[in-house]
Specification:
alpha/beta; globular
């Protein structure tokens, strides 16, 4: 966060929390970091229930209150609509498009300056390979990027953190993680690329560490060069 200058004094940060361990660890980490930052920032949890299980988010509100985090928790039909017969597009595309659009609307509504997402190193690697295989371009995930002429910054504080550390933290902090109820879970292009990376990792000793290390250095170098 310091190297890439993610936040600034008086930043108002929305944290996109899905209910998975990644986003909940992100919320906990930012809550802890807020207490030791050399300048004040405000945090707000943003949760959009996709509609598969209408009360899955119930543990989130008391947890936010316990952490001293403001929250906006909303029940939507983004997931169920995307998986209905009315949708002729990819369910994941439509669901994620609606979710991102609504998050942007909430950021404007609450006058938030930042939107924090829980992407980690595995997400960086999967996105990198997906862009090569499906889009024919070399690109990963930026640690910080501007939207709407700089009025909103998307930040990814966990980008250089591997999933194994997130899993350990979620368990030790006893976070209220709930199961992903999406019918497409494990059936997406991202899941296929994840499997490919796992297969590549069997080719030699420390192959996965080398892949992750190379992509971390690549992405951090890009982010540090951005104005």
């Amino acid at each position: 966060m310091q190297q890439t200058d993610m936040v600034h004094p008086q930043a108002r940060i929305g944290i996109a929390v899905s209910g998975g361990m990644d986003s909940l660890v992100l919320a906990q980490v930012l809550s802890i970091r807020r207490a030791i930052m050399p300048f004040p920032v405000e945090l707000m949890v943003l949760h959009l229930n996709p509609g598969f299980i209408k009360d899955s988010h119930l543990p989130l509100r008391p947890w936010c209150a316990q952490q001293g985090l403001a929250s906006h928790i909303e029940l939507t039909n983004f997931g169920t609509m995307a998986h209905s017969e009315k949708n002729k597009k990819s369910p994941c595309f439509l669901c994620s498009w609606n979710r991102r659009k609504r998050l942007f609307e909430l950021c404007e509504q609450y006058k938030l300056t930042h939107l924090a997402l829980g992407h980690h190193t595995e997400d960086l690697a999967e996105t990198f390979f997906m862009n090569i295989l499906h889009n024919g371009r070399v690109a990963g995930l930026a640690a910080k990027e501007d939207f709407f002429k700089g009025r909103l910054k998307i930040i990814r504080p966990l980008l250089l953190l591997e999933k194994k550390f997130i899993r350990t933290a979620a368990k030790q902090w006893n976070l209220p993680v709930w199961k992903n109820s999406c019918p497409s879970d494990g059936l997406t292009q991202r899941a296929s690329v994840h499997k490919l990376i796992e297969e590549l990792s069997t080719q030699g000793q420390d192959t996965k560490n080398k892949i992750f290390g190379a992509l971390k250095r690549y992405q951090l170098d890009l982010d540090l060069k951005k104005p």
